[in-house]
Amino acid sequence: MTAPLLEVEALSKHYALGRRRVLRALDGVSFTMQPGEVLGVVGESGSGKTTLGRAVLRLTDTSAGEIRFRGADITHLSRRQMRSVRRHMQLVFQDPNASLNPRMSVEQILAVPLQVHEPALDRAARRARIEETLRTVGLFAEAADRYPHEFSGGQRQRIGIARALICRPELLVADEPVSALDVSVQAQVVNLLLDLKTQLGLSILFIAHDLAVVGLISDRVAVMYLGRIVEIADTASLFARPRHPYTEALFSAVPDMGSRRPRILLQGDVPSPVSPPSGCPFHTRCRYAETACREALPALIRHMPGHWAACRRPELTLASPLAESPEGIA
Fold first, then answer.
1. Taking Cα atoms as reference points, which of 219, 298, 284 lies closest to residue 249?
2. Which of 83, 156, 154 lies closest to 119, judged by CA?
3. What tens digit of pLDDT does each residue of 110-149 get?
4. Could you write out the three-class secondary structure of 61-77?
5. Quick one: three-class SS letters along 116-153?
6. What is the largest CA-CA distance in the chain?
7. Among residues 42, 74, 44, which one has the least CA distance to residue 57?
8. Which domains does the chain have, with CATH numbers?
9. Helix axes 106-117, 153-165, angle to 10 degrees
């Protein structure tokens, strides 16, 4: 079996709020990614998705745990030591309007990573790489001479993806890359990422809150709640039979998923990560919760090959979006 490209083990990120209060943004997250794999990370706002992506890239320090990239522990590398690693793992931002400098041309924007990571390239070689990368993301080479405001939102996100690809990384962390785009454009960007995965052999950590979008692009899906992974499985297995009540509720909230079952309305908001509930973090909103759910934190349990869930009630038969939809995930 191929060695994992990325290994995350018991990763935590806690923020001290005064002497006695701690915000647990991440709390013991573990997963692996294989070369060429797309792992979707889904959950409500505040579940820790973005913090996880930034921690994996070492854009924020961690409180505990390990991050291994290509077998090397990068958890405690200094900024200088990380420089040689960063070209291999890049970030696609959520909002291209905010992430692209309006005073820089597209060529200048894409040249910055090359100047940092490949300073030996001369100007002609940089220009050639920039034009090649623009064509790879579906833009014309002449776009290099224009400025971000001259493009549509979808085109600007393609420029952001080109910036992430310019140094030919192995891992992309895509942080809600389609949520700021028009619905008509979202599918185009998702299809672009799928094409890039196939053409370049990219691994993508795809962060989103929409399970329908995640299902289209991901080989596996990790469901996060209050800083923890509560379910992780192959996409087909997760959609066919979710094993955690929170996953069932997320499916219920997505329109046009094919199931005619009544929508599950979760009561209240996500609990504060400053004072998380005892036991299962989801028990305060779970309609299946029992007394035992309030007493002990459930561990991720293997239900079938590749399918793990942290729920004390494995006997539950939860609603599947495919149960009444012959078309499958699509």
1. 284
2. 83
3. 999 999 999 999 999 999 999 999 999 999 999 999 999 9
4. CCCEEEEEECCEECCCC
5. HHCCCCCHHHHHHHHHHHHHHCCCCHHHHHCCHHHCCH
6. 68
7. 74
8. 1-80+171-180+201-330 (3.40.50.300)
9. 20
